[in-house]
Amino acid sequence: MSDSVRLERDGPIARLTLNRPEAGNAIDLQLARALAEKAAACADDAAIRCVVLTGTGRFFCVGGDVKLFATATGDELADLLRELAGTVALAVSRFSRMDKPLLVAVNGPAAGAGFSLAMAGDIVLASETAQFTAGYSAIGLAPDAGLTWQLPRLVGLRRSQEILLTNRRVGAVEAERIGLVTRITGDGELDSETNAMARSLAHGPTAAFAATRALLLHNSLRSYEEQMADETKAIGAAGARPEGQEGIAAFVAKRTPRFEGKQR
Length: 264
Fold this sequence. Notes:
Strand content: 5-15%
Order of helices and strands: EEHEHHEEHEEHHEHEHHHH
């Protein structure tokens, strides 16, 4: 598989790096397929307890490879766009449904599907040079990779309409203020902040994280009462697992809990 997406392991932490710096990490079919494959590999590996997604070079990801789009016309272009968007959607879906948190480190500008990938994180850390642009309508296209689902839930419908329809660039400071990102770090501090957060997540209660992610993912599909019923089931199941019992025992004993990974 191509090195357009690098996968590196550090114990329970997997780091996925978009690796086409000469093209701003633009997404072509090769990168999209590599991302989907490696997202699936991370999701299926029980030894991985946190996944980090970032980019190489000055950009996080400028979105789809427009130069590639320009090589096709008519039905051929439609087929190319559907295949590319569908493949990236597979990666985003695996990220959203895996039993471990996704930490995104936005090291620079994110546009189009790069914007979508950034929004897929549970925790999103952004450098001071990060900025976010939808960009789709500038080239006559509609959003993909889950952006129209994520963005209104993060910043509201009215603000999403403006961002998507006008392609207004959102800088790092505003992105933090309106809830696009979790927090900003100094440009020289992004790696260290990301590593510290990844270690914290990787040593947390993996099964509880999985249940929390599933509840958040499905909350808009259920009524208030159905969501509370699911929460009731989830907290009961968590208490029956070793990590839930360890967490309670550690709290009572005033010591740091020792979570050892997902245990059903």
